[in-house]
Design brief:
7-stranded mixed β-sheet; 2 domains; globular; alpha/beta; 413 residues; 7-stranded parallel β-sheet; Rossmann fold
Length: 413
């Protein structure tokens, strides 16, 4: 039996990417057809440690960012432009690696080096190259659909859409969003969020309830700024997780800073919080929706996808603010006092049905597509396959079950 090799490409810029990938990796390892997995990654921010449970076989510098105050550090972001020649060279190196390693599939989470390298590998078409099926499985893929809500900034949207559609291409895209939207294109599927197994277990065991404290996750704001904003509001204790905290600190009687570690302590604070004030990223708001927690979203400067997420959150009646200021904090405090039950009218009764766990089916579908591509290559001699040509090719006596998700769910208005 020939070796079935896959490359898993990780985006190392944020915890949301890491949590989502962790949900899929065990299924990839347990697929009977898979004989070897090779892990690559890029975009690790300065000072961030790699998770010990999922080591990388190879790491590229890629493009990364770090937080300033209120969002992305623009000066650091500008210096990333100097890395574009190195990024191009890394993509060529990855294309050469594909020729040596000869995998049949690339699983990527909005990872620039691997996706770009795979495109260069396909474009060169050297003799003996093995066709590789590439699939992106990430939240950003959902933005390729015109059905996904967008902010009221048409000019900025044009540049963001251009970046998202051209900079990280693949043969197929499996996107995630707060609810299922129409894809509008044959190579795209939009699913509901991937929820951590630990959170699903806590919900089933009745360990998720409304406690007293407010959970904060505001990595784009300096600690002293958060302290000044929270100082007047002593009605409830605040627990704020931040990347600049090394040990638990209590600057105010009602404010506790904790280091940014997604461990059991964090899960306890998350599952028992009264409500939360968080960025309009994707993974954490999705988990709060799943747990039916009332929360307020704060858009982080310099991350266009957060504006897209904010538009979708507003679409399901979640309050969102452009910035966290003393004025907006007054409104946040008012919402927690007077409208904390409103989220119960946003979420469906059983969020396990609204956000089902179909990670195994997604992995099986990916593996089967890669295997079908290889078998059809041997039967028809087609040198390269795209998502469109994959579906258009004639069947070749292969019994393959379509495991694409058939369920649908949506939020009530």
């Amino acid at each position: 039996m020939p070796e079935v090799k896959f490359v898993v490409a990780k985006n190392l810029t944020g915890k949301g990417h890491e949590q989502r990938q962790r949900a899929f990796i065990d299924h990839l390892k347990n697929e009977a057809e898979v004989t070897e997995l090779y892990f690559v990654g890029s975009g690790r921010p300065p000072g961030k440690q790699l998770p010990k449970d999922t080591p990388l076989d190879r790491e590229f510098p890629g493009i990364t960012w770090k937080y300033g105050n209120c969002g992305i550090d623009y000066l650091h972001a500008a210096t990333q432009l100097l890395k574009l020649p190195a990024l191009r060279q890394s993509r060529f190196e990855f294309a050469d690696f594909l020729r040596q390693y000869r995998p049949i599939g690339l699983w990527a989470d909005f990872e620039f080096v691997a996706c770009g390298g795979a495109q260069k590998y396909k474009a060169q078409k050297r003799p003996g190259d093995v066709p590789i099926f590439t699939q992106r499985v990430d939240h950003h893929s959902a933005f390729l659909s015109r059905s996904v809500p967008r902010p009221d900034t048409p000019l900025r949207n044009v540049f963001t859409d251009l970046f998202l559609s051209t900079f990280c291409k693949a043969d197929r895209y499996h996107g995630f969003h707060f609810k299922r939207y129409e894809a509008g294109r044959p190579d795209l599927v939009i699913d509901t969020p991937v929820i951590q197994r630990e959170i699903r277990d806590r919900v089933r065991e009745g360990l998720v309830y409304r406690g007293r404290h407010i959970l904060g996750y505001l990595p784009g704001y300096d600690l002293d700024v958060i302290e000044q904003l929270v100082m007047p509001y002593t009605d409830r204790p605040w627990i704020v997780y931040h990347q600049d905290v090394k040990n638990t600190e209590t600057p105010l009687p009602h404010l506790t800073f904790k280091p940014l570690a997604f461990d059991q302590e964090y899960l306890n604070d998350l599952s028992t919080c009264f409500g939360a004030v968080v960025t309009t990223g994707f993974q954490l708001p999705a988990e709060l929706l799943y747990m039916k927690k009332y929360f307020v979203g704060i858009i982080q400067r310099g991350q266009p996808e957060q504006s897209y997420n904010a538009a979708a959150l507003r679409d399901i009646d979640v309050p969102v603010f452009d910035r966290l200021t003393s004025g907006s904090m007054e409104r946040v405090n008012f919402l927690f006092k007077n409208e904390h039950d409103r989220l119960a009218n946003i979420c469906e009764t059983d969020m396990e049905q609204v956000y089902p766990d179909n990670t195994k089916e997604i992995v099986q579908d990916f593996v089967e597509r890669c295997l079908r591509a290889q078998r059809r290559k041997r039967a028809t001699g087609v040198p390269q396959l795209t998502a469109e040509s994959f579906e258009a090719l004639p069947e070749v006596a292969i019994d393959v079950v379509d495991r694409s998700p058939s369920w649908s769910s949506s939020f009530s208005a």
